[in-house]
Amino acid sequence: MSAEITSSDLDQFKQDLQATPGAAALQKAVMNNGINATAENTDSKVAMTPTFSIELETGAVANQKQSGRCWMFAALNTMRHGIQAQFKIKDFELSQNYTNFWDKFEKSNYFYENVLKTADQPLDSRKVAFLLATPQQDGGQWDMLSALIEKYGIVPKSVMPETYNSSKSNELNGLLNLKLRKDAVKLRKLVADKASDADIEAAKQKMLAEDYRILAYALGNPPTKFDFEYRDDDKNYHIDRELTPQTFFKKYVGWNLDDYQSIINAPTADKPYNHLYTVEMLGNVVGGREVRHLNLDIDTFKALAIKQLKAGESVWFGSDVGQSSDRQLGILDTNIYKKDDLFNTDFTMTKAERLDYGESLMTHAMVLTGVDIVDGKPTKWKVENSWGDKVGEKGYFVASDDWFDQFVYQVVISKKYLPTELQDVIKNEYTKPTVLAPWDPMGALASR
């Protein structure tokens, strides 16, 4: 049964509006100033003072500019923190353009392989439509960067600096997606025409050669050998010759990436806690590291982040940054806007409801570099962003603990901080995690 909006309904709605106390004044305020400015809660600014009982010194923030590489910047930031401290190189950065090149190249191949796997399905099937909606983009997740580093290593920013197209990625993304969709037409036709595996592979290799050329023109040539030359904070000169991206990573970062586990907090009915999950068609490197999430309750989730911070290690995390936030002030707080009061309407949804009904998912990755513990409980968190130093407190944000509960979905934790029973879950389910659909919100790519 359907019911239209009648004229008597409209009359009643108008009467309800007129009967609302202060409606005329509120209407003028919202019309002239906007919703957020009118609903702004000044108490939030006081509560979010950037003072923390646990705080890591991490230097100046990076700037991803007009690109969606936050996940990449955040991950490389966690790695550069150790380099800055150990080798005394203030504000050192790793090359985000180098990993960007290989990410886009590998994503192209990943797309081709998925096109071939689904070539027997109609164009309007949900999986094919999902693939073609965005063949590749700037966004990603922690395990995807780990897969790139395991295959290609990393380099200092000085060795492969930013270009116009890495810092402002819209043109490159548009061109590359056009190319990939055109290639999908040919690959699906080859399969439909019963072409041999050799002919399909030859066609794909030609496509990849063209993709490589596009990326080289736009982003530059990724180095295979280089010298690392720098002056430390004491003005001492250093040069390390004939490095490869792999030897640089081993010597200057030295992490075993298998030691780090993606932890999620997804309190939805389809994802019981203390289990491992992966997402179909989520990744970038064919044959490389698979995205795997361990789902935990929010208290354990936060306790692990605090444990890692107390040990002096920053924490990569993924969140829905656009929710209850002020970009310029650098405040992330569920109380920053009193919209329920302004509109006399209840906008409350649970975290599970927001995930299930498409209201929220992970959109942005940043780094936790501090936390304020009062009476044994976290009250606010220090956040290193990658939007430059003109926002927040020189680029650093403050997140309330309630905002963390509601809008943080992922953290990356060294396995050594996990209790034995959770390490056992990872070992036991590593080869057979529960597979989620490609469009599951836990497959969202951080890209703000």
TrEMBL record:
Alphabetized Pfam families for the sequence: Peptidase_C1_2
GO BP annotations listed: proteolysis
SUPFAM superfamilies: Cysteine proteinases (SSF54001)
Record localization: Cytoplasm
Coiled coil: none
Protein name from the UniProt record: Aminopeptidase
Protein family according to the UniProt entry: Belongs to the peptidase C1 family.
